[in-house]
């Protein structure tokens, strides 16, 4: 059996750590967010989707939450659901089209003709205001 790399071991430790915290504090955002990212890095896209769905229930007015949900759906090749989540992110103010065009999590979505139609309908919108420090 091949030996696991140090980064694989650390990622597994991170996931176990966050899962244990989450069992004690089920709606703890500071656990849910990094756990979702860790699942995605590990290739556990279904588990990442579960986390993103929980986050949209907890933080339903935040565009980045919906953007991440679109990424999870795209990774799972659930294009219509990915597009709907991305639409919601845009409705809430997401406007980073440059990043959207290169995000590897959205590769499957970007290959869809529906995506190109969607993007053309939103690129005419004004940019979201920059956050103030």
How does this model look, in words?
- The chain is an all-alpha fold.
- The chain has 2 domains: 8-59, no CATH class; 61-122, no CATH class.
- Helix content is 68%, strand content 0%.
- It is built from 8 helices and no strands.
- It has helices spanning 6-24, 29-42, 45-58, 63-75, 79-91, 97-100, 107-110, 113-122.
- It is globular.
Number of distinct helices: 8
Write down the oligomeric state: single chain
Average residue-wise pLDDT: 90
Radius of gyration: 16 Å
**Terminus-to-terminus distance:** 51 Å
Residues in β-strands, percent: under 5%
Query: What is the N-to-C succession of helices and strands?
Result: HHHHHHHH
The structural domain count equals: 2
Number of strands: 0
Blueprint (SSEs and pairs):
Blueprint: H1 6-24, H2 29-42, H3 45-58, H4 63-75, H5 79-91, H6 97-100, H7 107-110, H8 113-122
What's this, in brief?
The protein is mainly α and 133 residues long.
Task: Identify the notable features of this structure and list them briefly.
mainly alpha, 133 residues, 2 domains, disordered C terminus
């Amino acid at each position: 059996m091949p030996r696991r790399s140090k980064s694989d071991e650390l990622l597994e430790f991170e996931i176990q750590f966050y899962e244990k915290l989450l069992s004690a504090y089920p709606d703890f955002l500071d656990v849910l967010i990094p756990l979702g990212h860790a699942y995605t890095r590990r290739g556990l896209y279904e588990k990442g989707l579960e986390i993103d769905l929980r986050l949209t229930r907890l933080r339903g007015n935040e565009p980045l939450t919906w953007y991440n949900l679109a990424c999870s759906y795209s990774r799972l090749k659930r294009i219509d659901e990915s597009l709907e989540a991305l639409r919601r992110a845009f409705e809430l103010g997401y406007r980073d089209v440059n990043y959207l065009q290169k995000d590897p999590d959205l590769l499957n979505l970007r290959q869809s003709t529906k995506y190109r139609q969607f993007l053309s309908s939103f690129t005419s919108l004004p940019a979201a205001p920059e956050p103030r420090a």
